[in-house]
Structure formats: C-alpha cells, structure tokens
Specification:
CATH superfamily of the largest domain: Metalloenzyme, LuxS/M16 peptidase-like
Strand content: 15-25%
CATH class of the largest domain: Alpha Beta
Order of helices and strands: HEEEHHEEHHHHHEHEEHHEEHHHHHE
Structural class: alpha+beta
Largest sheet: 6 strands, mixed
Strand order of the largest sheet: 1-2-6-3-5-4
Mean pLDDT: 93
Number of strands: 11
Number of domains: 2
CATH architecture of the largest domain: 2-Layer Sandwich
Length: about 450
C-alpha cells in the first residue's frame, strides 16, 4: 500500500510539473517580414538571443553541396562593424557564449549573455544579417575549417559515413540525398560570387525567426529589436521546389565500406513521412518501444538474452519533408546477418499483429511526458523549441500542445503505423562493412 501511495504521489508530481511547464510567449512581425518571439523567464539573470534561418542542406544545388553548413561558419567571420576575428572575443569579453548548428532544413545561431547584455546580442545578430563581410579570405579560411571538421567527425570517425550511405540510397530526387556537411570538392569549386548569392537569397529577415528568451524588459527588448532589425530590407521571398520521391515497393540492398571499423553494421531503413505528421510521432513511440533502454524489446532479446548483438537500436530520423526509420545492429562474434535480421523482424511483426501491453504503453507515455518536461527545462531549450515549432512546423504553440498529441496516440495506432511503414517490401538493407584490404599487384 505504501508503494502504491508513493507511485501515485510521483505520478501526480510529474503531472504537476508538466502542466507547470506551460510556456508563455509573445510573437509579432516586423515590416520586413522578420518574425519575433519573446519569452520571459526571470529564474536566472541570463538571456538567449537566437535567429533561425529557413535554409539547410536541402536548399543547395547537387554540385554545390555543403553551402548551408559552410555559412554556419562563414557568418562568424565578421561584419561591417565587427572586425574579422573579433566576434568570439566580444562575446567572451561580455560574459557570454555562442554557437550555431545546421540541419537539412534550417540553420540556427544563438548567444547566451548575462541579461544586462541583451542590446549587445540583438545588435550582433542584426549585424550578422545586415552587414556580413563575405570575402575571399573568409571563404578560404572557413574552407580549411570545414575540411578539418569533415576529417575529424566524418571521414576518420568509425561509422562516420553511415548517414551518407543511407541517404544517397534512400533518396533519388530529393535534396535529402546528400549530407549536411557536403562534398569538399563542391566548396573548392565555388566562386566568391556564388557564396555571396547564396547569402543574398536565404539570409533575409523574411526567411528567419528571432527569439529572445530569459530575463529582460519586454518594452526595452522591442525597442532594441526595432532599432537594429527594422532597417534591414526585406528580401525576395524564397521559392521552394517540391520534390516527390516514388514509394519504395521492393526491398533492395546496398553496401558501404568504412576503413575505420572492424565490426560490420547491419541497417534496415524505411522511408517515413514529414516530422509534422501524426504518423511521425507514432514512429517516435515505436522507436522508444523497440530500443530505448536496456529493458526495450530489441536490446533485451538480441543483446541480453541471445547475445547476438553488441548493440542494437531503432530511431526515426525525422525531417521537414520526409523521414527515415533506421534499425541498426552490430553483430556479436560470428553471428550472421540473417540471424540478426530475423530476430529484429520478429519483433516488428509482433508490433504489426498484436497490441503492445498496457504496461508497455503506460511506460511509453511516461517517457514522452518526461522528455517533454526536460525539453522545456532550460531557457536555451525553450528558445530553440520556439524557433523550431514556428519555422519548421508552422505551429509555434506545439511547444505546449505536442505532448497532448503524444498522449492521444493509441495502442491501435502503434499497430497500424507499424504496418503502414515498416513492411519488408518498403525498405533498404545496408551492409556497412569494414573496408577490404587492397591486394598489391
């Protein structure tokens, strides 16, 4: 009885935390099309200023990949009023930190400052947008930086080309078929004029959202935003081409060789819908059910019980236009690919033919509620979520309501979605193998 009371108390506490995490915000547009979102949080004397641009790897040309990620670096080079090499010095000298990241769909820049430096942060982001200096010395410098990043994080990293190996086989016409970091020969071949044209096309106020989150005075923040951003001219609206991939109707195989590995990885991959769809959320739950933690179905069966695999996992690589559903495994010893895939498929078939148990369903609900609470637990997380939900999901209030969507997913839906997307005739099987030794003549 005592345990039951404690469990009920914990459940009530979690529910209370989740409801208390409701995020309040104000949003409006400047005349130049820049969308502004303000979120006050007085729990600590810090403020986050971030700008998310609706430009990612999918906005590149097939022979000029890597541009969006390149600009993630290039736009720290300097501006008309911030000399080259001074950006990071200014930030650290004022007690701040900053960073940026790029995906296939967007690029995100942010600064975290003590709250008394909000004007500085707003000015710096307006400078990045209004007065970037894009010259040959900056391009050449960042070209070397990106090449080194690719060597460290991709080319010399075990399984570093896994996403590339999958994407180039799963997509035939959509720009998702190349990676965010791109190909170095494309950056080498690009002219300065091409970089300047890319900046002019995509880094415009009407292709971005500015988020200010943390401790600040709203009226003062609005005044500074208007002062520094309103003079930036509106750009030509970005016209985006829509790409449709033909459905996968027959299982196919592919192989990739990696000189940095000794143990092969076996991957099955299915094409899935946009992250904005309800089905994408159901696939998230299926991933958690199959491989989240040591008590998950795949881990317990293949790693713990049968000792077939060193590692096994499933995840929904979800994006704005399409997604990819991965199931991967590293075999133990001489375990065959056929034995591993057979056991993985058995668990998927169970999902397709039986309802998951009530206890497993409740465990999923608890996990996703906990994830929701954690995602909004920091002001940095809230700033990123506000930008993402506005720019990519077209529904900023998902920051408060997406958890209700997950809660409404039923066991019957989990079964139906597994049948809809995880069928053998809709997948690729990738053998990600150690590179064969080349024999000398």
């Amino acid at each position: 009885m005592k345990k039951l009371v404690m469990a009920l108390s914990a459940s009530a506490l979690l529910g209370g935390v989740a409801s208390a995490q409701k995020v309040t915000f104000e949003e409006y547009d400047l005349d130049n099309g820049l969308h502004v979102v303000l979120h006050q949080d007085n729990s600590a004397p810090v403020v986050i200023t971030s700008v998310m641009y609706h430009v990612g790897a999918k906005d590149e040309q097939p022979d000029r990949t890597g541009f969006a990620h390149f600009f993630e670096h290039l736009l720290f080079e300097g501006t008309k009023n911030i000399e080259r090499g001074e950006w990071f010095k200014i930030v650290t000298a004022n007690g701040g930190q900053n960073n940026a990241n790029t995906t296939d769909d967007r690029t995100y820049y942010y600064e975290v400052f003590p709250s008394n430096n909000l004007e500085l942060a707003i000015w710096m982001e307006s400078e990045r947008l209004m007065h970037p200096v894009i010259n040959q010395i900056g391009v050449d410098t960042q070209n070397e930086v990106v090449k080194e990043e690719k060597r460290l994080r991709v080319d010399n990293q075990p399984y570093g080309n896994l996403i590339k190996a999958v994407k180039e086989n799963m997509f035939k016409v959509h720009p998702y078929r190349w990676t965010t970091i791109g190909e170095m020969e494309h950056l080498d071949a690009a002219t300065l004029e091409e970089f300047q044209a890319f900046n002019k096309k995509f880094y415009i106020p009407n292709n971005a959202v500015l988020v200010v989150a943390g401790q600040f005075d709203t009226a003062q923040a609005k005044q500074w935003i208007n002062k520094y951003f309103s003079a930036i001219p509106k750009g030509t609206p970005v016209a985006r081409q829509k790409y449709e991939e033909a459905p996968i109707t027959k299982e196919f195989t592919a192989t990739w060789e990696d000189p940095n590995i000794q143990i092969p990885m076996y991957v099955t991959c299915y094409r899935t819908p946009s992250m904005k769809t309800r089905d994408a959320r159901v696939l998230d739950m299926i991933s958690s059910y199959l491989s989240d933690g040591k008590s998950s179905k795949l881990y317990k069966k293949l790693v713990d019980d049968k000792k077939y695999a060193l590692q096994v996992g499933a995840f929904n690589y979800s994006q704005e236009d399409y997604g990819m559903y991965f199931v991967y495994s590293l075999p133990m010893g001489q375990t065959s690919k056929e034995d591993i895939l057979k056991n993985i498929d058995e668990e998927i078939v169970k999902l397709q033919t039986e309802l998951i148990s009530e206890s497993d369903y409740q465990k999923l609900q608890n996990k996703f509620e906990s994830q929701y609470v954690n995602s909004n637990a920091s002001v940095e997380g809230i700033a990123s979520n506000l930008a993402t939900y506005y720019l990519l999901y077209d529904d900023i209030n998902l920051i408060n309501t997406e958890i209700d969507l997950y809660k409404s997913i039923t066991r019957e839906e989990i079964k139906a979605v597994a049948n809809k997307y995880l069928m053998p005739n809709q997948r690729m099987i990738l053998d990600y193998m150690p590179a064969k030794e080349k024999t000398q003549n």
